[in-house]
From TrEMBL:
Its main location: membrane. InterPro entries: MFS_trans_sf. The chain crosses the membrane at residues 26-48, 60-80, 86-113. It comes from Roridomyces roridus. Keywords: Membrane, Transmembrane, Transmembrane helix. It is found in: Membrane. One of its GO terms (cellular component) is plasma membrane. This is Uncharacterized protein.
């Protein structure tokens, strides 16, 4: 997620010639994606209650399976729309899809780990959070150089 967030200023400023104010409005897509992901969790919870008797804790992952397919698709859309001749709205749609898919996968996996480990859930969730936070702290160190060397798409 850090790579996409880090690339927003470069893509929208360099390729689409957005001003700083216009560039800031692109971050609204993150709020929209989060709202869509949050709405999806209510549907996932209904699916969980419906299928928990037959599938157990794996019933938490039903919507996450679809979101896990949407995650790389949205990243490909974002990458292939990172040209100046592609309208900027396509990038905003890709960001919205990416954020909502990330939200759905994260919450489903978080709940699944808590269900599976029972009394040891706090340790399992702490390990999961440690790995996630370590990666989130490492990626900003090289993302700018990587995007400069490889290009946005």
């Amino acid at each position: 997620m850090t790579n996409i967030l880090r690339s927003i200023p470069g893509i929208f400023r360099d390729l689409h010639h957005f001003s700083v104010g216009q560039e800031g409005t692109v971050y609204v897509t993150i709020s929209i994606g989060t709202a869509l992901g949050f709405a999806g969790t209510f549907y996932q919870e209904a699916l969980y209650r419906k299928f928990v008797d037959r599938r157990g804790p794996e019933a938490r992952l039903i919507l996450a399976c679809g979101a896990s397919i949407m995650l790389p698709i949205s990243m490909f859309i974002y990458a292939w729309c990172s040209y100046d001749f592609v309208p900027w709205i396509a990038l905003c749609i890709a960001i919205t899809l990416f954020i909502s898919a990330t939200f759905l996968v994260y919450l489903a996996v978080f709940s699944y780990v808590a269900d599976c480990y029972g009394p040891f859930a706090s340790s399992a969730l702490a390990g999961q959070s440690l790995c996630r936070n370590m990666m989130a702290s490492i990626f900003p160190l090289f993302t700018k150089r990587m995007l400069d060397a490889m290009g946005y798409n």
